[in-house]
Write a structure and sequence with these properties.
This protein is α/β, with parallel strands linked by helices. It has a single domain, classed as TIM Barrel. It contains 14 helices and 11 strands. The chain has a 6-stranded parallel β-sheet, sandwiched between helices. A 3-stranded antiparallel β-sheet has the order 3-4-5. A two-stranded parallel ribbon has the order 2-6. Helix 10 links the parallel strand 8 and strand 9. The longest helix has 22 residues. The radius of gyration is 20 Å and the shape is globular. The model has no long low-confidence stretch (mean pLDDT 97).
């Protein structure tokens, strides 16, 4: 059973031969544990990949997103980074006053990519291919306005906020529709919605402002015959029923933040695209504790599929623990 078939069967709860694999890693892992990372990648090849995004006109950026110092992204948002191998944070918002809204650059260069190269990649690979674009409207608002400002905006709803969100969403719709017309198997979007024990905003506000945006992304994917994935960190259990209602196929979330046993109610209704606890178990656990964590996810969430063995090798994670994650998934 090839990788593409494995992932599709997992998404359809159709008894794949094994749980599909998906390793996420930052340059941090390459810089600090090159041998350990190489061993993991060799012994447990990914079943999920991304195609090239070759742009006719490369989007304008400044600096290196993974190096200490200043990085300016495709939208003009400025990130400050203090540690090599990870991504920094936005400290100065682009739009401090709503008169500045027209200075925000919509990265239209990202709309003109080499479709033939994407389709060739898909045709030549037996992997499950997720498109190389990722709408993130809530996070983009924060990058442009700053987190403190945007929480006030969510309460006050100034005209500029409404207009900015409208422009961001319109751009993402355009980008998503273009990727949906390629031969990729799936599309994905993201927004980190959870704190440690709750959503960052009320579920009522989330349903009013952001659920309709996600419905648009999910509908575009399904209308073009694609699966649709979402990533969101933190405690998001309050909106998982909404994501299921919208037809989301797979969610990547911090299972252990919410309690794996509390998520059992959703088994068979949505695919859990990882993960294993990167707050405590991957950095501080023993290999026996890692293996037990994997078995716990399998026991609670595997419903003849519905689980993808995603794991992030990021700051703090021990290479032997990441290895044990995939080794254990091969046995369950």
């Amino acid at each position: 059973m090839d990788s593409r078939t494995l992932v599709k069967k997992a998404l359809e709860f159709d008894s794949p031969d094994r749980v599909p694999r998906h390793l996420w890693y930052l340059p941090y892992a390459e810089e600090n544990y090159p041998d350990g990372l190489a061993r993991i990648r060799h012994d447990f090849p990914d079943d999920i990949v991304n195609p090239p995004a070759n742009y006719k006109v490369p989007p304008k950026t400044e600096g290196d997103i993974y190096k200490p110092g200043r990085f300016v992204d495709e939208w003009g948002c400025i990130f400050e980074n203090r540690q090599s191998g990870i991504i920094g944070e936005v400290k100065e918002p682009l739009v401090k006053d709503w008169a500045d809204i027209d200075t925000v650059h919509l990265p239209v260069e990202m709309l003109d990519f080499d479709v033939d190269a994407v389709n060739s990649f898909c045709a030549e690979s037996d992997k499950f291919v997720i498109g190389s674009c990722c709408p993130r409207p809530f996070e983009r608002l924060q990058f442009i306005r700053g987190s403190e400002n945007i929480y006030y905006d969510l309460i006050d709803r100034p005209e500029g906020f409404t207009e900015l969100l409208k422009r961001i969403h319109a751009f993402y719709i355009d980008e998503f529709e273009r990727w949906a017309k390629t031969d990729v198997d799936a599309l994905n979007f993201m927004d980190d919605w959870g704190a440690q024990q709750s959503l960052l905003i009320s579920p009522v506000m989330w349903r009013e402002l952001f659920k309709p945006l996600y419905k648009d992304y999910i509908d575009i994917a399904h209308d073009h015959g694609k699966y649709i994935f979402m990533h969101s960190d933190g405690y998001i259990i309050d909106i998982i029923p909404d994501l299921i209602e919208l037809g989301l196929d797979a969610v990547n979330s911090q299972l252990f933040c919410m309690g794996v046993e509390n998520l059992q109610q959703f088994a068979g209704k949505i695919t859990f695209w990882g993960e294993i606890d990167r707050q405590h178990i991957l950095p501080g656990g023993t290999t026996d504790e890692v293996a037990a964590a994997v078995r716990g996810v399998a026991a609670n969430l595997n419903a003849n599929g519905g689980v993808i063995a995603q794991c992030e090798f990021g700051p703090g994670a021990k290479p032997e623990n990441v290895y044990t994650v995939f080794e254990t998934w091969n046995k369950v």
